[in-house]
Amino acid sequence: FFDSEPLIAIQEQSDLIVVEGNRRLTALLGLTDKTIRQSLESQTPRWARVAFWEVVPDIPVLVVERRDQIVPLLGFRHISGIEPWEPWAQARFIAGLVEQGKTLDEIADLVGRKTTQIRSMFRDFDILRQARDEFGLDTSRAESDFGVFNAAMNRVKIRDYIDAPLPKEVDPDQFPLPESSRDRMQELLEFVFGGEGGIGRVVRESRQLSELAD
If you count Cβ atoms within 10 Å of the first and of the last residue's Cβ in the chain, which end, N or C, has fewer? Predict the structure, then answer.
């Protein structure tokens, strides 16, 4: 623990809800709470070799009134900073800010990324959301390997094939693909990620995406 890296929590009535530092908090509970220690040991036997803390130390915690007060910190730390989330989590965070009414340009400023990058991440997230919710397609494998889907969408020919917009043309108020793109979107998902049981997958590594685009 460093004083410059406190847990961040929101005060809700008499409780503190930790919104940043949950893994650190879990580790501390494993060091100081016997019931939680037993649960952790059942998952990771190495916990049994870790010393138990009989005295709970004081831990630095920054308490804020509202979640939106920590958006710049979370966005920069986990998208542009030293502890990045997985690509899908980054895109979901951006989409959540859009749902709160922030523009993509504002989000770019908050998280310290170029507007084009934020627009691309949101577009790719929204394409999968549309494929799942509107087209009824299975996007689970693309969500799990969202970085590969990002890489596919960086190929102009692949974007053109499914009629995906350029970053500057992204409109957060409507889904990015036309209805006519459904069959081609399904084909793209199968080529890159495979259908049930991996059937139909032709891309085994990201450098093959250029071959697929051609």
Answer: C
